[in-house]
Amino acid sequence: MSLALLGAFFGALIAGPCSDAFGRKPVIIASDIIFTIGSLVMATAETIPILIIGRLIVGLAVGVASMIVPVYLSEIAPI
User: Please, what's the b/e burial string for 2-40 (b: 16 or more CB within 10 A of its CB; e: otherwise)?
Assistant: First the structure.
């Protein structure tokens, strides 16, 4: 479980520079793809280390999404 938090930490660190370079929406889509990959790794894991790697991947996606989605929503919301 703690590796998901570690992944979220690093995901949050890279979210800002990636969104400045590529835009908010593409980074959100990439986060969704990373989340799906991590979920598939966890679903097909046959050993505990593979499951832990899947948690790390999902944590990375959660970190990116938790930083970028609120910014994106605030930018598209009407005043």
Answer: ebbeebbeebbeebeebbeeeebeebbebbeebbeebee
